[in-house]
Design a protein that fits this description.
Length: 744
């Protein structure tokens, strides 16, 4: 049944000229509207070759936020737009708006859906009252290669199951029951498809994989997001099996629209329609427009293609005109669902911004959520938690640094970020804290390389802030006077994120030198690690007593870290990406296939490296706690299972320590023999459970036949009779196991 509103939208569509329709399919950066005197020959306008008339027909705006700015742009636009169709405001609220939360990969390490939901809810509310209608989040690209800078944005890391459950939780939290209501925003899931599989981890590179592999591992998270009502999807920059995703008819028409029945809006990534020319697919701008509309892209983000080259095809071909009508209808429907026709400002509200944004309750909440994302990677002789009475040396470029919010936190309010130095001093008193920077994050020439391609001012070598050797010597002098050294080290925030692929994923050499020199002092050393990707640690790990992985923790990072270091809070996160021994292992992931020559002995002709271990350095699902958890007594309710039956597997988990804390208990399954080989292990469930000191609990999981399904060679999703293994444990490596049989 068509309701009145739908009818009105259709009438509106009928009233629109072809130029007005195409305008709806164009997205531009909104700053253009803020220039008082619009000069069509400068800035983005020039790049996009948009006339003023075209500008006042565009349908949406990229990355403008703030109630006042949004209202100003909307007013200016509506004053010149003939049919008064409001603009849509879409933003990258990747890890929060004004409050920066931990980067997405860190959020995933909480293995707690409530953490992701709460972060999404607060981010949605803060950005919605600041005028955002759509958020370009979550990013659910399966990420197996630590060289790829965008692994920092992937909530599920290398695991399809985590990707799925996180996709659902986040989309639902952003959108709520009704996207027009205060505090809800439409979710744009990205990047469709398989962007995480770019060859050699180089951003924007090629993706080529079998359809079976794609359906099995890469598609599930996107599919889950669609099935849970995501309003929008974004195509990816990469080609997928020979055809750029943005013009890939199989992907958009056959899979997304027909098979998965996606009814919402599909937007290209930034400039991606135009890039199909550079890909060698579209022969010129006109054909780029034709290819994208034929494939079914509704909105062209930041390229001049639809605005300037789509009309010609509409006039020539009725079928293309129909496609344009379908796209525009989808866009108008989204605007309608968001309530923009009744109120073009949506929920943008300057007063609410003042009251709600960065409020105390949310900052306190943020700290707690942040603490769940930290992963304790090493804790030799229980050197952590720290003792309040020891003299602590804080050494390293992240000790007195507020740049801990990650590369996507461009909107965040940094005035509330504290430094770890200040927070620790506050906690244990100035007299107990020593400090020396020790080194910069990166050497001058390294940071300059990055700044140069960003067109930013570089640092002159003569003005290099710290002379490396002198700084290390000074740090040694300071550290000498302490009982314990806390190193605050890691990647520069500009080293992960979009266009931040690296072929060396170790700590910067100057920081390694600092560790080596301090090691000579023969003191206990703890490293707090800031980073956006798995880091190669094999050259420093043996010099450190403890390692606390904190990623880029966001606004409340300094407070959250301090409380964990001193044991007010027990760390409970676990890795969602394997840490490689070294970069030569990339891509490395726990759910790999077995070779015909698995590496399980010292025989030469096995699938191995000569120079390093075959296994990861830290496996998927790994993370320590101040508690000591012991797993025992794996039990299975029956050894045979039929289609409509289920099996219960239980395990005893005991906290053998005086600390209370959370443990993430992981359940994996392996299909031992199948018509296509199956991975050595696949995560199928997890529970995050609280334990009191010395508490023992029986933890149970249910296994059903749905969990045993896979894509076979005929591209059917099936379960086959045969033997399976179930594993329960504290990581993908440390598990107890049992066998069972499935009988069809
Ligand atoms: C490019 C990025 O790939 C995408 O993730 C982002 O949402 C858009 N730019 C918009 O900024």
């Amino acid at each position: 049944m068509i309701n009145i509103k739908d009818k009105e939208i259709k009438e509106l569509l009928n009233e629109m000229t072809i130029d007005e329709k195409i305008g709806q399919m164009v997205q531009v950066a909104g700053d253009i509207f803020l220039e008082d005197d619009i000069n069509v020959s400068t800035g983005p306008l020039k790049n996009l070759e948009l006339s003023e008339e075209k500008l006042y027909n565009v349908g949406s705006i990229l990355n403008v936020i703030g109630a006042e700015r949004v209202k100003k742009i909307q007013d200016k636009y509506l004053s010149k737009n003939r049919l008064k169709i409001p603009l849509l405001f879409m933003d990258d609220i990747i890890n929060g708006y004004k409050i920066a939360f931990p980067i997405p990969i860190a959020q995933g390490c909480s293995w707690n859906l409530e953490v992701l939901r709460n972060i999404a809810k607060i981010s949605a509310m803060e950005s919605n009252i600041a005028g955002a209608n759509v958020n370009f989040s979550p990013m659910v690209d399966l990420s197996r290669d630590a060289r790829w800078g965008r692994v920092m944005e992937s909530v599920g890391g290398e695991d399809p199951y985590l990707g799925k459950v996180y996709a659902k939780a986040t989309v639902k939290a952003y959108q709520g029951e009704d996207i027009s209501r205060l505090g809800n925003i439409a979710s744009c899931v990205k990047h469709i498809a398989a962007y995480g599989a770019v060859e050699a981890g180089r951003d924007y590179n090629t993706v080529d994989m079998s359809e079976r592999e794609f359906r099995q591992y890469y598609l599930p998270a996107y599919k889950e997001a669609i099935e849970n009502g995501a309003e929008m999807l974004m195509t990816s920059f990469n080609i997928l099996n020979g055809v750029p995703a943005t013009v890939n008819k199989w992907l958009i028409q056959d899979l997304l629209r027909k098979e998965l029945k996606f009814k919402g809006v599909i937007i290209s990534d930034y400039g991606a329609i135009e890039e199909t020319i550079a890909h060698g697919f579209s022969k010129n701008e006109e054909y780029a427009a034709l290819n994208a509309i034929k494939a079914g892209v509704d909105i062209d983000m930041m390229s001049k293609i639809y605005a300037n080259y789509l009309k010609k095809w509409c006039l020539e071909d009725k079928e293309i005109e129909n496609k344009v009508n379908e796209s525009v209808l989808r866009i108008l429907n989204l605007k309608n669902k968001l309530g923009l026709f009744e109120n073009p400002y949506s929920n943008a509200d300057v007063e609410k911004e003042k009251r709600y944004i960065m409020n105390k309750t949310n900052l306190e909440k943020a700290k707690k959520l942040t603490q769940e994302t930290f992963v304790l990677l090493k804790n030799k002789d229980n050197v952590l938690p720290l003792n309040n009475n020891s003299k602590i040396a804080l050494i390293g470029p992240y000790a007195d640094n507020i740049a801990i919010t990650g590369s996507w936190s461009m909107f965040s309010d940094k005035t509330k970020n504290s430094t770890i130095l200040d927070v620790v001093k506050n906690k244990v008193g100035n007299e107990n804290v020593l400090y020396s920077k020790g080194t910069e994050i990166l050497r001058c020439e390294e940071i300059n390389k990055i700044l140069k391609v960003e067109n930013m001012q570089t640092i002159s070598i003569d003005n290099e802030p710290l002379k490396e050797k002198e700084a290390i010597e000074k740090a040694k002098e300071v550290a000498e006077k302490s009982d314990i050294i806390i190193l605050l080290l890691g990647e520069h925030y500009k080293q992960s994120g979009e266009a931040c692929s690296r072929s060396n994923i170790g700590l910067p050499e100057n920081q390694v030198n600092l560790i080596n020199e301090l090691y000579k002092l023969n003191k206990k050393m703890v490293m707090v690690l800031f980073n956006g990707r798995p880091i190669q640690l094999n050259n420093v790990e043996n010099k450190l007593d403890a390692i606390l992985e904190v990623w880029f923790p966001g606004t409340t990072g300094a407070e959250a870290i301090t409380e964990v270091l001193f044991g007010d809070v027990n760390p409970s996160g676990k890795l969602t990406m394997s840490f490689p021994q070294n970069v030569g292992q990339c891509p490395i992931y726990y759910n790999h296939y077995s070779t015909g020559r698995p590496h399980n002995s010292d025989f030469k002709y096995l699938s191995r490296y000569q120079d390093i271990e075959t296994e990861s350095f830290y496996p998927f699902g790994y993370g320590l706690s101040y508690c000591k958890f012991i797993y025992s007594n794996l039990q299975i309710s029956k050894s045979k299972m039929r289609k409509d039956e289920s099996i219960l597997v239980g395990v005893d988990v005991e906290n053998k320590s005086q600390y209370e804390g959370y443990e993430i208990i992981e359940m994996y399954i392996q299909d031992l023999y199948a018509s296509v080989v199956r991975p050595v292990k696949e995560l199928k469930g997890f529970q995050k459970v609280f334990f009191k000191p010395f508490e023992k609990k029986k933890i149970e999981f249910e296994i059903n036949s749905e969990m045993l399904k896979f894509w076979n060679n005929d591209l059917k999703y099936v379960v086959e009779s045969g033997e399976f293994k179930v594993f329960i444990g504290s990581s993908s490596k440390d598990t107890l196991e049992e066998k069972f049989e499935f009988i069809d």
